Amino acid sequence: GIQVEQSPPDLILQEGANSTLRCNFSDSVNNLQWFHQNPWGQLINLFYIPSGTKQNGRLSATTVATERYSLLYISSSQTTDSGVYFCAGETGRRALTFGSGTRLQVQP
Amino acid sequence: NAGVMQNPRHLVRRRGQEARLRCSPMKGHSHVYWYRQLPEEGLKFMVYLQKENIIDESGMPKERFSAEFPKEGPSILRIQQVVRGDSAAYFCASQPGGDTEAFFGQGTRLTVV
Asked: Which among A48, A95, A100 is the nearest to B101, CB-wise?
């Protein structure tokens, strides 16, 4: 199966700072999603982004499918952004392969 | 349009008992996936089902674990004779078809004591 690498593994920010999270894939994926797992364990869909760029408020994402990576941008971070961010790609078997996540802590 | 519904949210079982986890997909979604998340790890694929069919169970342990998605009712993930290592969060996801956005339930947190 494919390998999904996320970086950085851990990130501590002061409130108001910006950050970029990266996701690399070892092979082509049919689609790609970003999720936020909040401190209560819920998985929240952020972006469904097989290619191109999307924006939703303070968050935006870019996927360069030909180079097998995706970036998640968080601007003006808030304490409620804390949690774990996962990227996941869908392979030929039509199931998502998840990365190990980036653990984000935003301090007031 | 209700999201993916999983129940129970929390389940405690003694070693050797059976655990039954339920998942109702979003309306109009016929593809159901089960994933397991161990503490401090990402989610790992277990099984992919469509109505009355198991499409891919390559991520599911061969023994003690089974899954079904009957014509009527929710999908069920069944773990027989649970052991401490089965303690994890089990998530269900549904999609309307392949290569489409997956939506996850809130998960069932299984604790084996």
From this structure: A48
Is the Cα dihedral B72, B79, B106, A9 positive or negative?
Answer: negative
Pairing of strands B31-37, B88-95: antiparallel
A106: number of Cβ within 10 Å: 20
Considering only the beta carbons, identify the residue of B48, B56, B91 that sits closest to A43: B91
Beta strands in chain A (DSSP E): 4-7, 10-14, 19-25, 31-37, 43-48, 52-56, 59-64, 69-74, 83-90, 96-98, 102-107
What tens digit of pLDDT does each residue of B51-62 get? 999 999 999 999
Residues A22, A11: Cα–Cα separation, whole Å: 12
